Amino acid sequence: MNRFKFITAICLTAITIMVAGNIWYLYSLYNSIKEQTLQTVNECVRKADILEIISRLNGVSQGEDDSFIRLSLMVQGEKSPAGGYEYPNLLENLNQTMSEYFHVIEQSDKRIPERDGMALNNLFKKELGNYGLNPELAIIQTIADDTGQSDKLWSIDFALTKNQSPIYKVYFSPLNGHILRQMSGIIVTSAMILILMGFLIWYLLHWVGRLRTIEQMKNDFTHNMTHELKTPVAVAYSAADSMLRYYDQSDEARNKQFLKIIIQRLSFLSGMIENILSMSMERFKTMKLSIENVEVKPIVEEVAGMIELKAEKPIKIDIATPANLSVMADSLHFGNVLSNLLDNAVKYSRDTVNIKIKADNTSIVIADDGIGIDKDNLPFIFDKFYRVTSGDRYEVGGYGLGLFYVKQIVELLGWSINVTSKPGVGTVFTIKFKGNEKR
Question: What is the DSSP letter of 81?
Answer without folding.
Answer: T
